[in-house]
Write a structure and sequence with these properties.
The complex is a heterotetramer. By secondary structure, chain A is of the alpha+beta class. Chain A contains 15 helices and eight strands. In chain A, the strands form three sheets. Chain A has a three-stranded antiparallel β-sheet with strand order 1-2-3. A three-stranded antiparallel β-sheet of chain A has the order 6-7-8. In chain A, helix 4 packs antiparallel against helix 5. In chain A, 58% of the residues are buried. Chain B has one domain: 2-Layer Sandwich (Beta Polymerase, domain 2), CATH 3.30.460.80. Chain C is an alpha+beta fold. Chain C folds into two domains: 34 residues; 99 residues, Alpha-Beta Plaits, CATH 3.30.70. The longest helix of chain C has 29 residues. Classes of the chains: A alpha+beta, B alpha/beta, C alpha+beta, D mainly alpha. At the C-D interface, helix 1 of C face helix 2 of D.
Chain lengths: 382, 152, 160, 358
Amino acid sequence: MYRESTIVNESASLPYNGGDEGDMIINVGPQHPSTHGVLHLIITLNGETVKKVDPNLGYIHRSMEKMCESLTYRQFIYVTSRMDYLSAHINNHCCALCVEKGLQLEVPPRAQVIRVLMDELTRLASHHLWWGAFAMDVGALTPFFLAFREREMINDIMEETCGTRLTMNYMVPGGVMADLHPDFQKRVHEFIAHFKKKIDEYDELITDNIIFQNRTKGIGYISKEDAIAFGMTGPSARGSGVQCDIRKLYPYEVYDKLQFDEIIETGGDCFARYMVRMKEMKQSISIIEQLIDNIPEGDFQAKTKAVLKLPKGEFYSRVETARGELGVYIISEGATTPYRIKFRSPGYCNLSALDHMAKGQKIGDLVAIMGALDLVIPDIDR
Amino acid sequence: MTRDELKIKISELLPSAVFEEGGEWLNVQIDPAVWLPFAEQLRSSPDLSFDYLFCVTGVDWKTHLSMVYHLSSTNYRHTLVVKAKLDLNQPEIESVSHIWRTAEFNEREAYEMFGIKFLHHPDLRLLILPEGWEGKNPMRKDFEDPVNMIKL
Amino acid sequence: MSFIKNYLNDVWGAVKSLATGMKLTSQYAIHHKKEKITQLYPDNRDTLLLPERFRGEVVLIHDENNEHACTGCTACEIACPNGSIKIITKFDITPEGKKKKALDTFVYHLDMCTMCNLCIEACPTDAIKMDQTFEHSVTDRNDLIKILNKPGSRIRDGVE
Amino acid sequence: MWSLQNITDNIHDWLYATFNPTVAMLIEYAIIGALAIGLFAMLGLVLIYMERKVSAWMQLRLGPNRVGPKGIFQTTADTLKLIVKEGMTPTGVDKLLFNLAPFIVMIVAMVVLAPLMFAKGFQIWDLNIGVFFITATSSLSVIGILMAGWASNNKYSLLGAMRSGAQIVSYELSAGLSVLAIIVLTGSLRLSDIINSQENGWWIFKGHIPVWIAFVIYIIAVTAETNRAPFDLAEAESELTAGFHTEYSGMKFALFFLAEYVNIFVVCALGATLFLGGWMPLHFGTNTRFNEVMDYIPSSVWFFGKTFFLIFVIMWFRWTFPRLRIDQLLNLEWKYLLPISMINLLLVTFIAIMNWHF
């Protein structure tokens, strides 16, 4: 019999009223070390066992969709860097693709290759950060720094070519903003060599570790059918055996000419999701290796008008970010600004499956599940 | 299934459907009243099997609202866009969260952003907006926030 | 018997996997001088090299004669997504006696700028560029509102 | 040979010759108290600095390097900060228990220092049940932790405290059983006897594989008992933010923090005493040249060297491994460590009876 504070109705102001006698309602977040941002989860516990997870969003909602309605087609792209800040390039890419679809603009081959290279570098950086953060979620602190060592190299490459490290605004309708830096190829080669040397350490330190395997195997199981029904995409869904890599299914830019595998694991648990991302990193490296010495010469940007006007209609583009399928849905009324814009963010749908996955697991597992989902809160809240 | 086959199949299922020209995918305009049985058919019909609802959007057209559902099938990889016209003052549509679980969250977002009421939704509460939000729905075109809006 | 064998195999595999990890961290601990990646930031300020494309803040390029290339066309102001730039124009009288639009004050709100580079892309005369400074913290937010054209500066001849 | 024994004996003799016995005894108590508190503070400073440096090296960082040369005054500065910080008492807490808990934890950690032998003849209290005293009192710290968790009126604290309770109570068993292995071999609970029995070699060399197993289990169990990663479930940062001390701040938090490190020191010192010979230098056999060379190294250096090596190993664990889950933690204890240490104890007993050890 705990004192007053465990009485279930303590959070009466919150609209959730489930929970039986003896249940404990805990607010995980908005400030909590393992939510990686300002995610607020209201979890109902029975002892250590999670009975219900109720996400409460909006702590970092910037109403990007509304904001973009007042920005022109050139301007709104930079806003989307702040959506899923770890795959900022890929977000920008998706928006640029959508605008190009509307303008029926042909992107020069050099720009296409540069875009794919940047996408894959971003994916690598994002997966590195996820690896470190996931290891930290399950309690190992050293991997975070190892991951940052590699990620820093990618960020330096980005900084050299794009000018910024995280929110680049490098993709513009019709191509990329600037040509590659002369040192780009050299730096990427250095990074590939370094990465290949260090990736085994990741396995030594975390993947093969017995404690880590026990913490993730069989945890947060979701079946293939459920994953599809919840709209899960990206590595989180591919861990359950869902074929959902947009790069393979609906290839954009030069992805259809590249040799790479769509990683699919059938475990459906946190470890499967972990393995998908680990293998995806190697695939990204192989994509970069295929492209880095074969960048075609030519323009990096197609000729566009100073003021972009999309014809009346609806345009939808989808790309594969580090977290899953990002869709940009633009409804145009023929003006210089979109009439309505919708971002179909991968994190939002992945988060909706959290309750399903965490039910009946322990608190420690909840943290592992959140880590394996690779949630980026600004992506969920937009 | 190609776009034309899909069109024939859909018009068999729902004779009242109106098809829109243009767009990347087949667009079908339906009456909100028939949405629930239509959705069930789309999901369960073996040669359609739309099992993946990847985008749920509300749109404010000033004269009316509309809900846009982007559906896809992981088996056949065909895509369909379903649009339902809703009344501006009393927007109501049946929830499809029991057919596609992802709709539960997405409908909650549309509910608070556009004020569209989803009938028989299991848990229709505010998700993103703060508790006790009063006033207009933020994504409506007539929404104005004099305090936080920066006028350029 | 196989139960005991499995049990011992479990224990052995677990110990081995833990030992591999410990070997790795001990390697890093032993070679920490070589492996460290920390940069001693305020100490290495003099040797810190930022790439030339680094987006620190917008500056108006002035040459040695205190002349710039800004015609006051407000292309950057239009291109800016969040209103960080405000151009105040005036009318110069050209030697021919015509009125000509020119830059009076180039107001730049660093506090609102997101370093998106769109203004630099939009500038028809390449009058502005991104500077490599990054230490922008100030104690008063009004200090972040900058006037980019230097006092007494004028437009370079021949720039239209 | 130079030894701390001479110093302590001289002080003792001088005190009793100068003052009457009561006063002399009181003065002795005061000196011991001052030394213990001094050691306590020193250990806190040194161990926290060591932890930060070790972690930095393993994580490709530099560690503290600003305050003083190589940052050695960093912990001093941190302690000063914690002392001058406001000790907040949230509303709704049980004030008495809340304020008492850190002191209980600290007092327990200090009391355990009593029977430890820091060097040859340098011991506060040569108790005839020394080992038993340490295992008995060190388990009292769980009361302080439970108190802190309960009184904080915070669900995270409560969960952390309950986890800690389950954990410490379970791991006491295998720690105790592995300690028993040495007791069986020496036949004494007195720490000085145990150390003297290792004059011709430490138990870890003399006792064959069973003592090795006991040693490994002891290290694992005490890591869990002191709530250190990978068993730091009581304060699991990514799950419970800070566990049982979520609500503590200022000096009260510092006491928890210090007590954690002193506890590590105590269990490592006990491990060093039981398995690695305490202050006893590295000896092989009797009366060899090698032993004489080893004897030139002061006994306190031996003791602290061994202890700090064990502390380093525990820190090494922390910065390498992920955290276990609570049910896995208890599985490890009840399904693996306890059966193994029980069988191991039988083996050790057998060895002791057959006199097979060296």
